[in-house]
Q: What sequence folds into this?
């Protein structure tokens, strides 16, 4: 059986000062993620799951369900309010939120990759497509100019970005092409763990299909473990073996993806599936 | 000789619909066994829960009752109803295959790669996997001009053969077949029958739902007959009238 690569326990993120009543006053039963007593937003609470090497885990939910918060805290874009996450690397294991800033940056630059819905968050629009990849390679201590350029070229070819556009600024690229550059950049250091936050949202259907295809090919080739955050049930159906369903910051259901879609247990998931298919 | 690979004991499936606060029975008290190299046919009227049994074994449905005792390649017996999700995913990858009536695949992928995919996941090289896929498509009489085309635009019978080839290529130990010949003509059905017979000789155990009694007669070593859960005395007292059952079941599982 394959190895565990990530273990998340009781991850919680509260925006605002918080009060003793926040947790009991929010969630699916309370039908809100805003605490009526202090106005804080409970973006995520009590989120726990395991991820195995090479596995794709889906997180589905509507806007405000906390699904993006989970990957943002795992990628250190945001600090959690409580909870822990352990990353099992090849030879060491890291308690993510006990690390200092430099150690966190090291994991983020070398061992984790992130692809955002908004390319502005993942790409530097002041440098070329190739330069974006070079940036990430430089941060992870690859310094030979020729080696960097060759690696950037092969990554862009792999993600089907035309080689002759390598020196162009990604600002000029289409949305689908920008996502490909983001994926190439995220993969530059061959990370064992990749986070994908609504990567196909807002793209044309044909472009969406091509990006999903690329993601799955990469998973087959490199065995990269991934967390795929999406509101699109079709995306988890195609990509994820297991899926978590979130609402108002809580995980309300988890299971094999086909079981979540064909035999949903929770009232909310039943509504979600019935309205989508 | 004890070569039983699956023993289903008292399997039942009910759906609870929160929106109607009602329980819908889908299968009740199903008992069957599957032996290596043999085919067990599931028969019964529409609505008796035949697909529900296959989906319960594959864990697309969470069983409501019963034990699904599977003996794996290493000789360990486990209850599929209770096995962990990672364990089920692993069995799906290596041992248990399911040919459903619907083909879910990546939109852009050519038919040949759709069929080859289960081998790629197991680490077979792309070239070798494609070669095997081509061999199977040829045997199922899928015209070669279609191999490089994504199956989205294929006819029902063509899609079904792609799905079948994808299920057979992985050579699982236990194969679940949901009406594998439903949209095929007589000649193509014969190709499928020959393939199923070969798989039996290779020791693969199968459970199959067939339309035609003739297929059951030719291929089945054992038969499990299901009756409608509504007419069964074990049916839940919450059971709804038959007229609404089909409509709501479709709504849930569509």
A:
């Amino acid at each position: 059986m394959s190895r565990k690569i990530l273990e998340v326990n009781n991850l919680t993120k509260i925006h605002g000062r918080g009060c003793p009543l926040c947790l009991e006053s929010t969630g699916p039963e309370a039908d809100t993620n805003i605490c009526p007593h202090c106005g804080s937003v409970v973006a995520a609470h009590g989120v726990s799951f395991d991820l195995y090497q090479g596995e794709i885990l889906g997180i589905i939910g509507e806007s405000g369900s906390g699904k993006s918060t989970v990957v943002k805290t795992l990628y250190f874009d945001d600090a959690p309010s409580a909870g822990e996450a352990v990353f099992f690397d090849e030879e060491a294991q890291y308690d993510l939120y006990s690390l200092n800033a430099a150690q966190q940056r090291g994991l983020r630059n070398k061992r984790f990759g992130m692809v955002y819905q908004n390319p502005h968050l993942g790409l530097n629009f002041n440098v070329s497509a190739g330069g974006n990849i070079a940036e990430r390679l430089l941060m992870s201590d690859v310094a030979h100019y020729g080696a960097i350029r060759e690696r950037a070229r092969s990554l862009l070819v792999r993600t089907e970005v035309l080689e002759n556009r390598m020196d162009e600024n990604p600002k000029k690229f289409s949305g689908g092409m920008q996502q490909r550059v983001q994926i190439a950049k995220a993969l530059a250091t061959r990370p064992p763990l990749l986070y994908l936050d609504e990567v196909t949202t807002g793209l044309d259907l044909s472009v969406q299909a091509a990006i999903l295809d690329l993601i799955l090919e990469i998973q087959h080739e490199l065995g990269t473990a991934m967390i795929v955050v999406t509101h699109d049930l079709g995306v988890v159906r195609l990509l994820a073996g297991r899926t978590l369903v979130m609402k108002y910051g809580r995980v309300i259901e988890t299971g094999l993806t086909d079981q979540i879609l064909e035999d949903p247990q929770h009232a909310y998931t039943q509504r979600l599936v019935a309205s989508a298919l | 000789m004890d070569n039983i690979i699956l023993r289903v004991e008292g399997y039942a499936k009910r759906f609870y619909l929160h929106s109607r606060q009602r329980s819908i029975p889908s299968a009740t008290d199903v008992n069957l066994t599957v032996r290596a190299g043999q085919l067990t046919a599931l028969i019964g009227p529409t609505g008796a829960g035949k697909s529900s049994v296959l989906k319960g074994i594959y864990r697309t449905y969470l069983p409501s009752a019963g034990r699904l005792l599977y003996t794996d390649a290493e000789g360990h017996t486990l209850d599929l109803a209770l096995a962990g999700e990672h364990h089920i995913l692993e069995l799906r990858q290596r041992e248990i295959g399911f040919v459903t009536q619907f083909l879910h695949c990546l939109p852009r992928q050519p038919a040949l790669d759709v069929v080859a995919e289960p081998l790629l996941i197991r680490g077979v090289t792309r070239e070798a996997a494609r070669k095997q896929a081509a061999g199977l498509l040829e045997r199922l009489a899928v015209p070669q001009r279609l191999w490089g085309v994504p199956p989205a635009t294929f006819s029902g019978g063509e899609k079904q053969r792609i799905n079948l080839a994808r299920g057979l290529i992985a050579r699982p130990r236990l194969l679940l077949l949901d009406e594998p010949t439903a949209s095929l003509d007589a000649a193509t059905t014969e190709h499928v029958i020959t393939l199923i017979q070969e798989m039996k000789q290779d020791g693969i155990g199968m459970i199959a739902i067939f339309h035609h009694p003739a297929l059951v007669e030719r291929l089945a070593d054992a038969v499990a007959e299901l009756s409608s859960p509504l007419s069964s005395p074990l049916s839940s007292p919450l059971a709804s009238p038959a007229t609404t059952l089909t409509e709501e079941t479709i709504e849930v599982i569509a």
Notes: The interface with chain B takes residues 1-2, 50, 52, 55, 209-210, 212-213, 216, 220, 237-238, 241-242, 255-256, 258-259, 262-263, 265-267, 270-271, 274, 277 of chain A (CB under 8 Å). The two ends of chain A are 34 Å apart (CA to CA).
